[in-house]
Design a protein that fits this description.
This protein is mostly helical. It contains nine helices and six strands, in the order E-E-H-H-H-H-H-H-E-E-H-E-H-H-E. The longest helix has 25 residues, at 223-247.
Length: 256
Amino acid sequence: MSGVPTSIHLGPFVFHLYGLGLGIAAYVAYLYAERRLRRHGIDTAAFARYTLALLVAGLFGARLANIVTNWGYYSGHPARWIAVWQGGISSFGGIGFAIPVGIIAQRHWWPSTRLLAFTDALIPALVAGWALGRVLGPQFMVNGGGHQTTSWFGIHYSGQIGKRVPVPLIQGAEDAALWLILIRLEAKWTTRAVGVISAVAMIIWGLVRAYDERWLLGQQSHSGSIGVQLAGLALTLAGIGTWWRVSRRPRVVTTK
């Protein structure tokens, strides 16, 4: 049985659905993030440049992390290093590079805005974009599924034998649920400490991502998989630390 399609052909042109889907998700997230920043009173004149910096850092880090943790596959084949249309990017590799770049750029372009106030406005848009990206990106890449399954919900993916757990769809649903939680918290809390939205997102997303890597992708002994699990737990701990810090500060009154 054929797997999920990975590309479409229009005459002599080939469009890889993986990259096309991620591009659409990134654009939607950009528009939504820009709107949220404006609603929080943050100037967006430099946001296009900020977004470009994040995208470049994230893509570079995501690809580099995948190459390092799968060196046996890439060693001796430089052409594979740039073949991102065949899959092979690491979420936490991208995050690991994008975070320091994002912090430095935020301090440069918005020096009068507190970092956590900025991330409270930005993160729900990133989570929404991530949810859409999981459905439109990895769902259509080579080897996009999780471990083998005989369950009714299994899907055939290109490059993989047998039915697979549809991890991209599951993660898309998880991220959409997290977005709803963040929006609900933001709408219902008339008083809150700046940074709580960011902390909640870090705690939940880190835990869920580590769980998915451990139980859905079926690569418990793979060095890259273990690294993702540890990174997820580290993000959760960072979120707990952020929550503890902001909960000790006086709360500010915000109007919605």
